[in-house]
Design brief:
266 residues, alpha+beta, 8-stranded mixed beta sheet, 31% helix, globular
């Protein structure tokens, strides 16, 4: 953790500020919600949280680039903060407590940008998860009050718990039949959605999860937490890390079989 300790502490400070802002507007009767060109919702809280995080980063890390869902990319260089101010906006605007702020620091390397710090903070659930490269993954109230995370040791799909967000997107990619075969082969399936399945993979309460359509800000923080908990995070083609347009996470033992199901084509 020594290499990224200060960055991880900063990510917690950013998450604290975002939590205060998002919880202040959660379930507000006058919350303003707009529809973006891709037909997904964005609330005033999404924009305010990202603006708040960007302001902190401009002061604390003025040389680092910033990529956020609502305001795009600014800056260049080998270090890039990636922000999803509210992952699960549809839940947020309906008063469902399953949403979180995702904050990650990515660094350039031989294989492109890869996450080295990640924080996922879900204040309405009173939960937070985090990781730093080479230092493990944790969950708790603070850096000094935390439990280390470990993925499960389940070795067969038949004994596995599979989590996903929805059926949307699988059919468009020609993967729906493989997806359905996977749900039939598993011991248990649940559509928890958004960030939460990845955190449960890291905790060992879920063994596999996948989504067919994602952006970098949806994945960067989740990826480092899953990886540091001993799991594996790839795109659906098997490329490690959050660099693709979709994602799959597992305890590692089930990953190849997970991808095998999701890449069946009929």
């Amino acid at each position: 953790m020594s290499d990224y300790h200060d960055d991880l502490r900063l990510a917690h400070v950013l998450a604290d500020a975002a939590d205060a802002a998002t919880m202040d507007r959660f379930k507000a009767l006058d919350l303003k919600v707009e529809t973006k060109p891709d037909m997904t919702p964005v609330s005033e809280a999404d924009k305010a949280a990202e603006e708040l995080i960007r302001g902190h980063l401009h002061r604390a890390r003025p040389r680092d680039a910033i990529l956020g869902e609502e305001y795009g990319i600014e800056g260049t260089g080998p270090r890039r903060w990636v922000i999803d101010p509210i992952d699960g906006t549809k839940n947020y605007v309906r008063g469902v407590p399953v949403w979180a702020t995702l904050i990650s620091l990515m660094e350039a390397g031989e294989n492109g940008f890869q996450p080295v710090v990640g924080v996922v903070s879900a204040p309405a659930l009173s939960r937070r998860w985090w990781a730093a490269k080479g230092a493990g993954a944790f969950s708790g109230r603070s850096l000094t009050s935390a439990s280390r995370l470990h993925v499960s040791k389940v070795e067969t799909i038949a004994d596995s718990s599979f989590a996903f967000s929805s059926l949307t997107g699988w059919e468009e990619q020609g993967r729906l039949d493989g997806f359905m075969d996977l749900t039939r082969a598993c011991w248990r399936t649940r559509g928890y959605g958004d960030f939460w399945p990845y955190m449960m993979v890291a905790e060992g309460s879920v063994d596999i999860c996948a989504e067919p359509e994602l952006s970098l800000w949806d994945m960067a923080a989740n990826a480092i937490i899953v990886q540091e908990a001993g799991g594996r995070f790839t795109d659906l083609d098997g490329a490690d890390g959050p660099g693709g347009s979709n994602g799959a996470a597992s305890n590692g033992l089930l990953h190849d079989e997970l991808l095998g199901y999701l890449n069946q084509r009929y």
